[in-house]
Amino acid sequence: MSTLPPCPKCQSEYTYEDGTQLICPECSHEWSATGEDTADGDALVIKDSVGNALADGDTVTVIKDLKVKGSSLVVKVGTKVKNIRLCDGDHDIDCKIDGIGAMKLKSEFVRKV
Fold first, then answer.
1. Which residues cross the membrane (predicted)?
2. Radius of gyration over every alpha carbon of the chain, rounded to an integer in angstroms
3. pTM of the model
4. What is the CATH number of domain 1-39?
5. DSSP secondary structure code for residue 113 in this structure
6. CA proximity to 60, closest of 6, 96, 22
């Protein structure tokens, strides 16, 4: 029987421990195992492919050729994307790419400049 507390966000009982963090597999919420909640505990923390924290307005570089769904366009490796906006969801970066337009990217395919 698990003695870990339920997820504070979705109340799931399937939480697990990862180092000093507790993680909910259902909603992906992470919190401190020590029980100390910070004031910004619900703040959106998005990291790039090498673990650097991203913020609104950052400039990133694409690290992999990405096909644009619904067209024959490709975002090439090394494309610099300026002034990103972070959002919730699977594709967690909103941006405009020169020559392509507005689109969403996954943070795992970019590196902070």
1. none
2. 17
3. 0.62
4. 2.20.25.10
5. -
6. 96
Q: What is d(CA 88, CA 98) in angstroms, rounded to the nearest whole number?
A: 23
Residues 56-88 have pLDDT tens digits of: 999 999 999 999 999 999 999 999 999 999 998
pLDDT digits (tens, 9 = 90+) for 8-30: 888 888 888 888 888 888 888 88
E strand or H helix that includes residue 75: strand 74-75
Q: Which amino acid is at 83?
A: N
DSSP, res 109: G
Phi-psi label, residue 11: left if phi above 0, alpha if psi -120 to 50, beta otherwise:
left
Q: What is the CATH number of domain 59-112?
A: 2.30.30.40
Are 77 and 65 contacting, i.e. CB atoms less than 8 angstroms apart?
yes
